[in-house]
Amino acid sequence: SHLYPNPAEPLVGTFVAELARAMAAQAAVSVVAPVTWMPGMRARKGIPTKRREGAVKVFHPRRLACPGPFRNLRWRAHLAALRAAGLTGPWAVIHSHWIDPDAYAVSHWEGSQGALLVATIHGHAGLGLGLHGRPSPLIRKALHRTHHLVAVSSELKSILVGDFGVAAERVSVLSNGMDPARFRLDDRAAARQRLGLPVNRRL
């Protein structure tokens, strides 16, 4: 996933990092999170090509930037970054968090042979349907080259099935989760007292 935090951008794709950490408690997890660069520009300082976050191995190969007119070539840059990471597998599952270029590049990667290819659609933008957006032909191709899709809402599943022609049985709806150890219900009065807030007034 190109949506993944790194030392220079610690808040990018934190939800993907949370999921990776949770999955690493169940199985071995490696993350390939390319760092975009342009010729003549040094790769961002402070981002190692590989590092470890607890049980998760994280690789940051460099990915050539493709400006707007060349956006249909982004998947080739992403594929080159996958190859540069030097991972050989074999993998049971490869999980992408963006369709174009991530999932499309994975579907062409030699290292994905024999793996179940899964991609999560986090919102309209992931399908090219953001503000004034139009899905690229590569998005349609990637959706049909991926074995299984995860939509974070029923509405997204209906778009995948109705607008993109994806078979309903190839789509699972999994709502975004949260960490109950970090976010939990608490006694309202006690919480307000701790925070120095009025106990009996609406806030």
- 3D shape: globular
Distance N to C terminus: 40 Å
Over the alpha carbons, how many angstroms does the gyration radius reach?
20 Å
Going across the biggest sheet, name each strand in turn.
6-7-8-9
Largest pleated sheet: 4 strands, parallel
- The residue fraction in helices comes out at 25-40%
Please mark out the parts with pLDDT under 50 across 5 or more consecutive residues, or reply none. Answer: none
Discrete helix count: 6
* Mean of pLDDT: 91
Number of strands: 9
String of helices and strands: HEEEEEHEHEHEHEH
Name the beta content range. 15-25%
Structural class: alpha/beta
Task: Tell me the layout of helices and strands.
Blueprint: H1 14-24, E1 30-32, E2 35-37, E3 50-53, E4 56-59, E5 62-64, H2 74-84, E6 93-96, H3 99-108, E7 116-121, H4 137-145, E8 148-151, H5 154-162, E9 171-173, H6 188-195
Parallel strand pairs: 1-4, 2-5, 6-7, 7-8, 8-9
Antiparallel strand pairs: 3-4
Helix pairs in contact: 2-3, 3-4
